[in-house]
């Protein structure tokens, strides 16, 4: 069975949810299943709605099919209801490369996940421009990350139940101003520049994809910069959800970025930054490719 590729898209008739079909086609769920008006409504819909969507995607009614070329993809959740939750330093080789830039040659494995957030307004669509923020940061950098989208609310979620709370998986780019990240101590400033969280292009339902060992990588202007596997996370998705939900209620539609592997620009020798025109292509096996360009 092919995995279901859920999207948010827009055209002259507005923004709505759909399914990316093969052959450059989109199933318009606003026509096919009116209650599925946006991704949050779909996430909160009864489980039966997802099975109904599967059946429709297998035999799409012609009246609900649009050419992909006639629509614009948005981020699957264009504006999360609250901050995007993030985990820093969650791949050992990335911890080590970051430590090396500070003269530390023997890195310790983090004992607890390092949580921080990005403002919900930072989320932008596939193919949208990321500002260069010239004059604000001299060290604009990329980070490919697997994203878990929460489906059902929960607090104090045990590890062995954590994946029951995941609606699906997508990709995000944790675009970062490295100098700001360091200068302000707390990471929020360097991580929440406007339009610094490209997300998408699709959400794959959790039932359709085991995300525990997927190839994850990023190319900058066609050059492979990051290449790893999600199995190399220090804290896996179950542990992240378990620890983040301790005394803190996770809600449907919450978005959790799970950290980036090694290969970021600032840890290269010499350190590399991004400039106007640079093209970032982020790929996770079984999900797809998220492409964004640095604008002015
Ligand atoms: Mn990150």
Q: What helical percentage do the residues reach?
A: 10-25%
The SSE string, one letter per element, is: EEEHHHEEEHEEEEEEEHHEEEHEEE
CATH superfamily of the largest domain: Fumarylacetoacetase-like, C-terminal domain
Number of strands: 19
Give the spatial strand order of the biggest sheet.
7-6-17-11-12-14-8
Question: So what's the CATH class of the largest domain?
Answer: Alpha Beta
**Distance between the amino and carboxyl termini:** 43 Å
Strand content: 25-35%
**Total individual domains:** 2
CATH architecture of the largest domain: Alpha-Beta Complex
Give the names of the bound compounds: manganese (II) ion
Query: Largest beta sheet, briefly?
Result: 7 strands, mixed
**Would you tell me which CATH topology of the largest domain applies?**
Fumarylacetoacetate hydrolase, domain 2
Helix/strand class: alpha+beta
Shape: globular
Q: What would you report as the Rg, rounded to the nearest angstrom?
A: 19 Å
Please tell me the overall pLDDT. Answer: 96
* Contiguous helical run count: 7
What does this protein structure show overall?
- The chain has 296 residues and is an alpha+beta fold.
- The protein has 2 domains: 6-74, no CATH class; 84-294, Fumarylacetoacetate hydrolase, domain 2.
- It is built from 7 helices and 19 strands.
- It has a 7-stranded mixed beta sheet, covered by helices on one side.
- A hairpin with a 3-residue loop joins strand 18 and strand 19.
- The N and C termini lie far apart (43 Å).
- The mean pLDDT is 96.
- Bound molecules: manganese (II) ion.
- Manganese (II) ion binds next to strand 6.
């Amino acid at each position: 069975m092919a995995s279901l590729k859920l999207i948010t898209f827009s055209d002259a008739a507005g923004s709505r949810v759909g399914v990316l079909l093969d052959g450059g086609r989109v199933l318009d769920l606003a026509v096919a299943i009116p209650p599925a008006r946006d991704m949050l409504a779909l996430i909160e819909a009864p489980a039966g709605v997802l099975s109904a969507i599967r059946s429709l995607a297998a035999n799409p009614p012609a009246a609900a099919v649009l050419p992909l070329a006639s629509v614009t993809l948005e981020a699957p959740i264009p504006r999360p209801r609250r901050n995007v939750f993030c985990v820093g330093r969650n791949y050992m080789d990335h911890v080590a490369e970051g430590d090396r830039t500070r003269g530390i040659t023997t890195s310790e494995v983090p004992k607890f996940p390092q949580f921080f957030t990005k403002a919900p307004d930072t989320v932008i669509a596939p193919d949208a421009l990321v500002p260069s923020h010239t004059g604000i940061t001299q060290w604009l950098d990329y980070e490919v990350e697997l994203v878990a989208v929460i489906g059902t609310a929960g607090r104090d979620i045990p590890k062995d139940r954590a994946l029951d709370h995941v609606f699906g998986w997508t990709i995000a780019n944790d675009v970062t101003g490295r100098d700001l990240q360091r200068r302000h101590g707390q990471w929020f400033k360097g991580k929440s520049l406007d339009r610094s969280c490209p997300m998408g292009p699709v959400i794959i339902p959790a039932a359709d994809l085991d995300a525990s060992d997927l190839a994850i990588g990023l190319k900058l202007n066609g050059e492979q910069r990051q290449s790893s596997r999600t199995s190399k996370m220090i804290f896996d998705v179950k542990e992240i959800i378990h620890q983040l939900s301790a005394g803190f209620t996770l809600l449907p539609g919450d978005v959790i970025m799970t950290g980036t592997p090694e290969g970021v620009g600032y840890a290269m020798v010499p350190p590399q930054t991004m400039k106007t025109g640079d093209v970032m292509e982020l790929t996770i096996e079984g999900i797809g490719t998220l492409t964004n360009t640095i604008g002015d």
